[in-house]
Design goal:
There is one protein chain. The protein is of the alpha/beta class and about 270 residues long. It has a single domain (about 20-270), classed as Alpha/Beta hydrolase fold, catalytic domain (Rossmann fold), CATH 3.40.50. About 30% of the residues lie in helices and about 20% in strands. An 8-stranded mixed β-sheet has the order 1-2-4-3-5-6-7-8, sandwiched between helices. A hairpin with a 4-residue loop joins strand 1 and strand 2 (about 35-45). The longest helix has 22 residues, at about 250-270. It is globular. It starts with about 20 loop residues before the first strand and ends with a helix.
């Protein structure tokens, strides 16, 4: 069996590939936060500059970073090959929650991902630079972030997903660093209400966004995801919702991501 060594590099314009997906680690700049951030970009084996591909943004959870997905679920490289897509894993901070924070100028991850990073990827890679070929998903904090960003930026993302997403941040008024980016719930309840995904469905119209999300039955996020599902049904917003056995674990997310990428691949094919 041939051995493949993938070298992770700062972006130099040179890709390394041996009949399998290749991995770049790129250094991007956020003007909004006045700092540089790394991101992982996974290219399928048949990637070439002249062939434009859809892009799936894959967000990490609380206390994680840009390298979590490729380190803990290396099989996502196979998904890039199988579905001929680019996978982009940004950095959302230890507890950035993918908001533009009103209290911390160094935490503007909404602007960074929905604007600065999307622009960077479309400039440096052969992408189909249209919302119909751009999807976003993530786990836990990143599941919240993916739906939050897609709901607010439907001109950027055409499809969105969530795995075990923290879709109602009001559950955690003193946990997971949310008060560091929004202020204390007791002092700024309106911020928490406005930025909870379950309260943002007014932004959606039927079929304005392709949506898929799932949660393990034993997950602490299960009840809020079930509520999100019911609210979407009440509003007649089409979506895929799956409940599986499992908890808030990488075993669960490593399984879930394959189904989410399949969902997005079908969406991209319909858009062509």
């Amino acid at each position: 069996m041939k051995k493949l060594i993938l070298l992770v590099l700062l972006y130099t314009g040179i890709s390394i590939s041996a009949n399998a997906a290749s991995v770049d680690t790129v250094l991007t700049h956020s003007a909004s936060m006045h700092k540089d951030l790394k991101a992982v970009v996974i290219k399928p084996a048949d990637y070439r500059a002249g062939k434009k591909l859809p892009v799936i943004y894959l967000l990490h959870g609380f206390s994680g970073n840009y390298s979590d997905w490729i380190t803990k679920v290396p099989a996502i490289k196979d998904l890039a090959d199988q579905y001929h897509v680019l996978l982009v894993c940004p950095d959302g901070g230890v507890a950035g929650w993918y908001f533009d924070s009103p209290v911390n100028n160094k935490s503007k991850y909404e602007t960074y991902i929905a604007d600065e990073l999307v622009h960077y990827i479309d400039q440096h890679y052969a992408t189909l630079a249209d919302k119909k070929f751009r999807a976003i998903t993530g786990l836990s904090m990143g599941g919240h972030g993916a739906l939050f960003l897609a709901f607010k930026h439907q001109g950027i993302f055409g499809a969105a997903g969530s795995m075990s997403g923290g879709v109602d941040i009001r559950q955690f008024p003193d946990r997971f660093g949310i008060e560091e980016v929004l202020g204390k719930y007791s002092e700024y309840p309106q911020r928490w209400e406005q930025n909870s995904v379950v309260n943002m469905l007014y932004l959606l119209k039927p079929n304005s966004l392709a949506i898929t999300f799932d949660c393990g039955y034993d997950d602490m996020m299960y009840a809020s995801n079930q509520k999100l599902h019911e609210e979407l049904l009440d509003r007649k917003i089409p979506h895929d919702y799956i409940v599986r056995p499992g908890g808030h674990t990488w075993d669960y997310w490593g399984n879930s991501v394959a189904y989410q990428v399949l969902f997005f691949s079908k969406y991209f094919k319909q858009a062509k």
